[in-house]
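User: Design a sequence. Structure:
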């Protein structure tokens, strides 16, 4: 038996509208949430067209022009805009009947490419029991026939499995929202043994170590430590009939462990460093969980990943901005302070879920609005953009330039000469004493 996808009803209308614009095909991403029982699709987002695609190709329609790199790049950009609990669930393609035969092979290739691209950026490992099936949705633009299949992205030889595609209204109306604020103060040393410091690589290594701390942290949900295998909504009243449920909101506190457990042996490492990177600030994190008997561990896992993703994504965006403005050769910096982009949240029409984006201080609201239209095909009003946090900073602190070997050698020799001069009297006195003892020994022996 295949997987079941419960799909927000408005997505059907969105896909129908896209099918009228097919020339000769259109691709896009499916966004939603996995769960052991079923998956939820809350958004479908078409791939933004490239400028070259505006020019119509001459000849019969073909999928050879499918730009795999462009689609995977779009998926990476979209994944940054998703809060905890949401991910790219799959890929869709609306194509003319002539391309129906090749569409499924193209979708399979895209699913594995997108997953490979997204997994490279992650600082966390998926759990063993985690759902690894991703959806390939094929729609004929003429007949409007929908065919949904899944592939296991953990198995490169995976074959297609049939899946159910069911529309449902108000899919996220009773979902649970979780939020927390995490204070960040990360010190990342730059080792002197590295001849040329790649700040982005060093930062990612430092964030990797920090992410392990987040994974081992204790999470208090509404002030309580809950067993991971219990139901998140245990003890809460359920809404029946036509009663409109209110948003179920949980406030979460994150307690980071200061040291390892008593059973683990801890060792100190002394390393020579030529500088450091310091990340400081408070980041707002948010996650959403379905309301079909969710477990506590599902909620905590979603929030953990949002905490790790949001800081990692901000650092990526900052370094991309530095390279864009200062060139890729800008690898070593003098001491500098950089503001990480602030996170903002935007509501999704007809849903409690809020999507997010990142804004530098000098970015205008219009630029954010353009990005939402381009990446998520969603118009956004300026008044709907909520910046929920203060500015976090990156402090890059190299020590003063390291002197060359010859520069180091000269002071060393000077110090040795000074020491010899200071101790010359002691050396002469010692020599005289030795000679006197030799003379007295020879004299008395005679």
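Assistant: Done.
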């Amino acid at each position: 038996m295949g997987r079941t996808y419960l799909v927000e009803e408005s997505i059907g209308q969105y896909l129908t509208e896209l099918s009228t614009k097919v020339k000769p095909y259109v691709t896009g991403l499916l966004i939603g949430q996995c769960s052991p029982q079923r998956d939820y699709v809350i958004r479908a987002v078409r791939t933004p067209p490239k400028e070259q695609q505006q020019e119509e190709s001459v000849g019969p329609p073909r999928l050879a022009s499918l730009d795999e790199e462009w689609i995977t790049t779009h998926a990476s950009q979209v994944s940054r805009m998703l809060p905890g609990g949401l991910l790219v669930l799959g890929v869709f393609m609306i194509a003319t009947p002539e391309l129906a035969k090749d569409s499924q092979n193209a979708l399979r290739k895209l699913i594995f490419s997108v997953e490979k691209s997204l997994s490279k950026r992650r600082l966390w490992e998926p759990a063993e029991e985690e759902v690894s099936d991703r959806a390939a949705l094929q729609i004929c633009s003429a007949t409007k026939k929908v065919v949904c299949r899944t592939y296991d992205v953990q198995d490169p030889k995976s074959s297609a499995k049939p899946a159910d595609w069911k529309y449902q209204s108000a899919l996220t109306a009773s979902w649970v929202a979780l939020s927390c604020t995490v204070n960040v103060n990360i010190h990342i040393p730059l080792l002197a043994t590295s001849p040329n410091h790649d700040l982005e690589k060093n930062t990612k290594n430092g964030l990797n170590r920090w992410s392990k701390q987040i994974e081992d942290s204790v999470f208090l949900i509404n002030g309580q430590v809950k067993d991971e295998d219990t139901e998140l909504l245990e003890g809460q009243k359920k809404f029946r009939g036509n009663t409109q449920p209110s948003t179920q909101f949980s406030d979460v506190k994150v307690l980071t462990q200061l040291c390892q457990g008593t059973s683990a042996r801890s060792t100190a490492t002394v390393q020579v460093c030529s500088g450091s990177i310091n990340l400081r600030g408070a980041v707002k994190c948010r996650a959403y969980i379905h309301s079909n008997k969710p477990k506590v561990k599902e909620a905590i896992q979603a929030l953990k990943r949002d905490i790790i993703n949001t800081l990692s994504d901000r650092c990526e965006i900052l370094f991309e901005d530095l390279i864009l403005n200062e060139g890729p050769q800008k690898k070593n910096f003098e001491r500098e302070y950089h503001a990480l982009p602030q996170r903002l949240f935007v509501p999704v029409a007809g849903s409690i879920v809020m999507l997010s984006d990142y804004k530098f201080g000098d970015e205008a609201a219009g630029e954010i609005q353009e990005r939402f239209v381009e990446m998520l095909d969603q118009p956004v009003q300026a008044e709907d953009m909520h910046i929920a946090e203060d500015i976090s900073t990156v402090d890059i602190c190299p020590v003063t330039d390291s002197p060359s070997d010859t520069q180091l050698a000269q002071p060393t020799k000077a110090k040795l000469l000074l020491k010899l001069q200071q101790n010359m009297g002691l050396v002469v006195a010692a020599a005289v004493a030795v000679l006197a003892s030799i003379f007295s020994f020879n004299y008395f022996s005679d």
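The CA atoms of residues 369 and 380 lie 6 Å apart. The first helix runs from residue 9 to 19.
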